[in-house]
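Prompt: May I have another protein with tokenized structure?
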Amino acid sequence: MSDFIEENNVTTKLAQDVQQELPTIYVSVKNLIACALGKNYEESFEAKIKPQNVMTCAKFLLQAIRSCPLPDIEQFCEEHPQPEDQLGVDRLDDICKYKVIHALRYKAEEKGGKITRLFGKSYIKWSKSWNLFRNTTVELLQQNTHIPLEEIEYFLKTYEASLDLEDKPEGVENNEKLIWATDFNGVLLEMQKERHQRVEGRQKDVPTEEEDPNSLEAQLFGAPSQPSVRGRNDSQATAVPSLNFNNNGEIVASRQSSMTSLNLNAYSGSPLQDSNLRTLDVRSRATTMEQLGLEPPLYESLTRCISHDPAHVQDRERSTTLDLFAYEQQGFAASCPQSLVSSPKAGASRSYLYNAERRLNEHSSNDST
């Protein structure tokens, strides 16, 4: 090494680092081909570059790196002057690195070696010649192929982003970990495991339906959901609305805010089965009789509905529609049916009861006749 590099500790150490650097430029371009083909499609499933053009771009990129000569030291200093914010020590370090790259490159060519198979990323970064390699690649591709310029730019920007240069291209994903990997498949498997771990971590943070039983009800009816009971014991868990069936043939819908007592015979003429408990709980949240779907089907059941005195509703503001419907039945028998028809504020529940009672009277008069 002493015959073409000045013998000192700095240059010797830099020369050894360059010669032992892995992966080489040739291997990185092979990884670039795999990476470009694997991430070739956008969200619209349109190819950013045709697969057959990837190999062509890679071939001319390697050719441009091998064919472009490196200027001498004086010309390098003229083309790359010292920035204003750069220290003198850093400037000397850049010049020393370029001297090592320049000497090793031409020494290797004299012995018939290919620089793309001998040097790695440091050759491109220390020589500060990426713009030269890039422009030469574009010229070779335009002269010898018909590949669109957009596809050429996509291929070169993908490789440029992995070089970790000062002027990084915008809007391009940095795949340095894959492109400059000595074991491409191993790095790819490791990245997949990390991605699976992140997904599993996000899934653990999402509460399930069992952990938050009131979430579905809140989505359907717009009510605020109860706090999640995850991480709490049964005594601390939030109470969930429930329905109980008593001995008098009544369904009691119990909530923290109100108690609802209903006569089953007033709506179906027979006790409500256990399979319909959930349906009634959902219906109790409705706001109109049309939504409830509880128009009395039988005159006999309507008679029992009118004659029955339901439980008194203590809190009218927080009671449900069925609570108010049962409460209003108390004064219905003594009220005038005609006033219900003429009243503009008469609710749907009173209209149903009035029409049903009128039909009941007509039916009774026809039977007596």
Q: What stands out?
A: Strands lie at 242-245, 250-254, 259-263. Residues 88-110 form the longest helix (23 residues). Residues 9-197 form one domain.
